[in-house]
Amino acid sequence: MPSPDPAARVDWPAPTPGHAVDATVTLPGSKSLTNRYLVLAALANSPSMLRAPLRSRDTLLMAQALRSLGTRIEDSPAQGGSLDWLVTPAELVGGATVDCGLAGTVMRFVPPVAALASGEVRFDGDPQARVRPMGPVLDALRTLGVTIDDDGRGTLPFTVRGNGSVRGGDVTLDASESSQFVSALLLAGARYAEGVTVHHDGKPVPSEPHIAMTVETLRDAGAFVDDSDANTWRVEPSELSGLDVQVEPDLSNAAPFLAAALVCGGRVTVPAWPQHTTQAGDAVRDILDAMGADVTLTREGLTVAGTGEVNGVDLDLHDASELTPVVAAIAALADSPSVIRGVAHIRGHETDRLAALARELGTLGSNVTETDDGLRIAPAPLHGGTFHTYADHRMVMAGAVLGLRVPDVVVEDSGTVAKTLPEFTTLWERMLSSTGPAHQ
Ligand SMILES: O=C(O)C1=C[C@@H](OP(=O)(O)O)[C@@H](O)[C@H](O)C1
Ligand SMILES: C=C(OP(=O)(O)O)C(=O)O
Hints:
This protein has helices spanning 31-43, 57-68, 104-114, 135-143, 180-189, 208-220, 251-264, 284-290, 324-332, 353-363, 393-403, 424-433; strands at 12-13, 21-24, 48-51, 72-77, 83-88, 96-99, 118-124, 147-150, 158-163, 169-173, 196-200, 225-226, 232-235, 244-246, 266-271, 294-297, 301-306, 314-316, 338-341, 367-370, 375-378, 385-387, 409-411, 438-439. By secondary structure, the chain is an alpha/beta fold. The protein has two domains: 6-29 and 248-439, UDP-n-acetylglucosamine1-carboxyvinyl-transferase, Chain (Alpha-beta prism); 31-229, Enolpyruvate transferase domain (UDP-n-acetylglucosamine1-carboxyvinyl-transferase, Chain, Alpha-beta prism). 54% of the residues are buried. A five-stranded mixed β-sheet has the order 16-17-15-2-24. The protein binds shikimate-3-phosphate and phosphoenolpyruvate. Shikimate-3-phosphate (S3P) binds next to helix 3 and helix 5. Phosphoenolpyruvate binds at residues 103-105, 322, 349, 394, 420.
């Protein structure tokens, strides 16, 4: 599925600067936090203020989904010209159709909310969204007392038939394909009559920091969550309070920018890097350090400095799997071999990311092998060519990283990056044109 906006369907020649970088790049808010705050705000008993939320395709789809269920979400002018979101909850109503686009957070987090509405809510999304796994969420909701019509494939499209309340209770599911299955049930679970207890039974759950994020944001909203046992999470039935929150910058989206300092030499600073965070993208600090960068976290932000020399690494990205495309691109520029393991489940992300990365890196000359749960990448001379993106924002970012060192890389359908960072190419070109410690 190409970019939803045909005007954005452009091929982008990824710039090759040929010099060291020296830039400060201010990044928009976290997708994962913005979409959790929106859901919790829609379920709360009073209005919420989301400060500096991410505005991208995934978060606009989430806002639209919740609006269609009755929630009021209004722009609220803030200092510095930015727009916050004032979210006013209301009784949840059905009769809506939710467009999930290609957003995992929308297709998984909204059905448990729609189950609390009275009336039918239909869900569908992009063609590629129709193959993303959903079955464990649908089956779990049925166990918790919700009626759902689907064609039995456990994917979009489907219809949730709510009657205004959900019984809730205990449910066991296999969340080895996505942590979002667990997060989805927990986020709405406080509003279920019996709350919810989710047990995971299966191979290890990926992306666990995202479940910690769900638990932390729920507690911020006043929910009682017990996560003291491995693979079991309990949310007590309770009201949720409105939130007034500053959304942290998206640390996974920061990864390609920080990588530029390692790959080109020089330094890149991302301001407002949180000292404490549940974002999985925080792992980029250790990853870039292992690949040869100097990484410094201060109150001002995170600074990465490099010489242009990149070390290969052996990394298990099971907990931070959304970093895989960018890390694979950096690894393709390294002087020694790399192994990325623990990410079998990213075959069910926006696209089959392992197949896409193996194909596209290979086309540019990389010595890359797809394994059951990751990639092996050995040094090889790379050359220019078209880097296809498969409607995957992180493939655009991976192509940009390759272009830093490989002339004539053309990133096909770069507009698809709008899923989480519509201003990506602008920020990228500005970063590369800065000749001093300029502020973006
Ligand atoms: O809950 C979330 O916000 C997310 C959870 C993770 O999903 P998976 O567990 O499917 O990897 C992550 O990769 C995705 O980008 C965002
Ligand atoms: C896997 C990702 O997204 P989603 O929330 O759609 O699962 C991602 O952003 O890398």
